[in-house]
Amino acid sequence: MRNSxxxxxxxxxxxxxxxxxxxxxxxxxxxxxxxxxxxPYVIDDGSRRVEFWHFGWAHTRGDSFAYxxxxxxxxxxDAIVDGAYNYTGDGHxxxxxxxxxxxxxxxxxxxxxxxHGGPGGPSMMTGQEQFFLELLKAVKSAxxxxxxxxxxxxxxxxxxxxxSIKLPASVNNWVGGSLPNQVKETYEELKAGRPHxxxxxxx
Length: 203
Known about the structure:
Layout: H1 5-10, E1 41-44, E2 49-53, E3 65-68, E4 73-77, H2 96-106, E5 111-114, H3 122-144, H4 149-152, E6 153-156, E7 159-163, H5 179-192
Parallel strand pairs: 4-5
Antiparallel strand pairs: 1-2, 2-3, 3-4, 6-7
Helix pairs in contact: 2-3, 3-5
């Protein structure tokens, strides 16, 4: 799992001719070294057990969690963050809270090591879950009022710069400058009826 937003956005994309990956120094994607179908996939050397879990598509199709049961620590990648770091362009926004809920109810967690932001406890998981529930609720409400995308998001060229959508103060930790784009992409996902990450050019 990588914690870089740019890495998650570019994963699996072939670099342009004449260029190499800045991280791997490769001119083409690195082949998969290992895959697994059984969940959880377990590594246990006798002194420490690590479980790899997949609960579905949230931030990306391949969202994975590393869980250390002895320490009750969960490493989340970008599926869970502490702060206004959520990139939704490749995501399944409607399923994101379900993934978080599955992780926090299936696993006994005391420590959360997020993709962005500092370490924390289970409240980080419930907070981010609530953020997405509130985001979905607000956009669905606007759509139910027959509002068009341009009625709730102001664009400058192809960039979302502001939104009339307001979320409750209880989720302010996850609200930042990317909210207009998150609203736009949530609207597009709901309108298309499929994950935003499957929508060509986001439309």
